[in-house]
Amino acid sequence: MSVPRGSHLLITGPNGSGKTSLLRVLAGLWSPLEGTVSVPSPRDYPGGKVMMWLPQRPYLLQGSLRDQVVYPGVVAAERARQGSRAGSAAAVAAADEEDERIKQCLRMAGLGKFVDGGVPSVGLSTRHLEWNDVLSGGERQRMGFARLFYHAPPFAILDEATSAINPDEEHMLYEHVIAQGTTVVSIAHRLELRRFHKRELRVSGDGEGGWELHGQSGPAGNEKWTLINSSNALCMDDADKI
C-alpha cells in the first residue's frame, strides 16, 4: 500500500495492535523485521526534510521559546541571531522576518498568547531549563504543531498528537496542516478525525498483523504488514508481491 501526497491516512485499531510500532517503522525509528520502507528523497524537497514525527509527548529542549519552534533546526536559528547582533541591516531585517514567521506558527498552533502579550513573562527569547513545567500537556502538543507549521514537510506522522487538545482546536490544527500541503498519517482515538483523512487503515489486533484498508477505492485487506520500495510515496504491501 502506498501513501501518495494528499492521500491522508488514519490508522485505527485496539490498544496493543501495533499502530505505534508501524509508525515508528515508517518514521525510520525502527527497522522492519520483514520487507522495506522507502520515502521520497530529501533532495526532491526544499529544506531537505521529507517527514516529521509528532508524538503524544513532544520533546522540549532547554533554551528559548524560539528554539522550541525551530527544533531541530537550532543551529540555523542561532546563526541568524548572531548575524543580527553583528549589526548588518540586512541581517537584522532577516532576523526580524524570521521572528515574525515563528510568531505566526505559534499563533496558528494556538500559542499566540506567548508572543502577543498574553503572558508578559514569556517572549521568543525567554529561556527556560524546563519548558515542561511552563507548558500544559495541550500546549506541549500545540508546540509540536508549531514546529510542523514552521518546517512544513511533505509528510507528517501524528501519533495521538492531539490527545490533550479539545476537538475544536484539534480540527483547526488539522485544517492548517492540510492547507499547507502536508500529508498526514495519523493515529487517533477520536473518530471525528476521519473527515480529515481520505483512507482508514484498521489494524485488527489479532496477533497475526491482520488489517483492512477503507477509503475512496473501497475496502481491501491482506494478512500481514510488510513494506515495499517506492520513489514517490510512503509504501506498504504484501511481501509476496515484491
Automatic annotation (TrEMBL):
Protein name: ABC transporter domain-containing protein
Gene Ontology biological process terms in this record: fatty acid beta-oxidation; long-chain fatty acid import into peroxisome; peroxisome organization; very long-chain fatty acid catabolic process
PROSITE patterns from the UniProt entry: ABC_TRANSPORTER_1, ABC_TRANSPORTER_2
Record keywords, A-Z: ATP-binding, Membrane, Nucleotide-binding, Transmembrane, Transmembrane helix, Transport
Keyword Repeat carried by entry: no
InterPro entries given in the database record: AAA+_ATPase, ABC_transporter-like_ATP-bd, ABC_transporter-like_CS, ABC_transporter_sub-D, P-loop_NTPase
Pfam (any one): ABC_tran
Species whose genome carries this gene: Mantoniella antarctica
Family affiliation: Belongs to the ABC transporter superfamily. ABCD family. Peroxisomal fatty acyl CoA transporter (TC 3.A.1.203) subfamily.
Domain ABC transporter: 1-233
Molecular function as annotated in GO: ATP binding; ATP hydrolysis activity; ATPase-coupled transmembrane transporter activity; long-chain fatty acid transmembrane transporter activity
Record-level GO cellular component terms: peroxisomal membrane
